[in-house]
Each structure stands twice: as C-alpha cells, then as structure tokens.
Amino acid sequence: MSRLSRKKETKFATTLVINFPHATLEAPTIEKKEATSQEIEMPWNVVVHNDPVNLMSYVTMVFQRVFGYPRERAEKHMLEVHHSGRSILWSGVRERAELYVQQLHGYLLLATIEKTV
User: Fold this and answer.
1) Helix (H) or strand (E) holding 24
2) What is the set of domains in the chain, with CATH numbers?
3) Contacts by 108-111, CB closer than 8 A, 24 or more apart
4) I need a labelling partner for 117 at 20 to 30 A (CA). Which of 9, 24, 82, 92 fits?
C-alpha cells in the first residue's frame, strides 16, 4: 500500500456549551483598603502552630534554615510548639513576616502572622 492511498485520521475536540438563560451572576464587589503606614510598620508576629504530621527534627531543621537560628534556639521553639500548640518565632515589619510565613508554608508548616498588641 502506498503512502498516498492511506486515509488520514482527523480527530476533533468537542466542546460542551451549557446555556442558563435564567441564571444571572452579579459582579463581585471588590473592597480595597489602603494600609496606613502605622499598620505596616507596627510589629507583626510570625506564629507557627502545632501539627501532628511533621517530625520534631524536621521542624527544628526548618527553623534553622528559614530563620538562621542555632540548633538550641530552634529546638526551644519546636518544643514550645509541641507543648503549647504555638510559638512566636519572629517579630517585625509586616512584609518580612509575610515572607517568613510563605517560606514556612513551603516547608508544609502551619504558620500565620498576627499584630502585636
């Protein structure tokens, strides 16, 4: 059989369109709140919460990597998280606190930021 006599197969993708004539969607309301310089510069705490998944040695290692803590200080915070359910690891400006929380999430630790009083 020659190449010319072979049939070409053509595949088509189908798209299903569902029309809901009676359904209406309202535009979402977006509220923007500008943070004041006082709110931004107010000290924020980076808090790590306890979880039943990660090993204590792993949590200690993460604290050393993210915050540059020596082993003893990292272990102190890890034990505080283990026994008290949470530990404040760092306090400072909001942007840096958000960065630390994002890094801790990258290591699969449960972390939040909170305003200091």
Assistant:
1) none
2) 54-115 (3.30.1390.10)
3) 108/53, 108/54, 109/48, 109/51, 109/54, 109/59, 109/62, 110/48, 110/49, 110/50, 110/51, 111/46, 111/47, 111/48, 111/49
4) 82
Identity of the residue numbered 69: Y
Please tell me the pTM assigned to this model: 0.66
43-70 per-position pLDDT tens digit: 999 999 999 899 999 999 999 999 999 9
CA dihedral over 58, 64, 67, 73, signed as positive or negative: positive
Least confident of 29-43, 51-65, 69-83: 29-43
